[in-house]
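Q: How would the structure tokens look for this protein?
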Amino acid sequence: MKILHVNNIAGVASTISHELRNRGIISDVLIFDENPYSFPYDYKITGNRFMKLLKTMLKGFKYDIIHWHYPKQRKTISIYSKIKPVIKHYHGTDLRGKFEEAFCIVSTPDLLEYAPNSIYIPNPVDIEKIKPVYRTKNPKPIITYYCSAISKIEIVKEAKSKIGDKYQFIELKGYRHEDALNLLANSDLFIDIRSNSWYGVTSIEAMALGKPVIGDIKDEFRMEYNPPIIQYNYYKNLTNTINEILNNENLRIKYAINSR
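A: Here is the predicted structure in token form.
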């Protein structure tokens, strides 16, 4: 069996590919453009839009299955699927607000409503490569946070303004993946508040590192999937929730262990 992953959103494709190889399956990752996170890949296709798609199709003939992440090129995929089996794997804005009738994979449960024949597969991280760091030696607690296209960043900014310089805030933006993991490992708390009522890959990595994660999970998802995410307004608002956790080391460690 040979599988080609197209695109490497948040390192999901390379993580899946690595595990497939461990199971004896030939699996490679193809990308079109470099990204600042430096996720691993096997092939990079360059050229104009037409040449990129043509080269991708030619490369795909060597494989049995094409696993297409972030499949926005719907017409191209529709044509290609008549030649090769194509699995579409949606990651967010590529599907949110649209509709997919065919079978596909979605990476977050909020996308299920846009694809009635889809299956939800949580984003993976390699926990064998990520060792938990429950305690740090930071003289001032470090809070890391991530701002995506769907982040409720105004909530974080308001809390940051109210808290002042009591804690150090670091936005994980533009860092290579390895550097971002090191920053996460040295932090005491991670914040990821999103409008889709779920959380991203960086939150999963933070949890794997043994960090409490604050987010915004709607009741339906919390009842169905029970993620170990601390509701940002659990202690009335984000400012209070941050203070409750960072001013009580036993509570912080409890949340940290629960995350892992």
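The mean pLDDT is 94.

The radius of gyration is 20 Å.

Upvote if useful.
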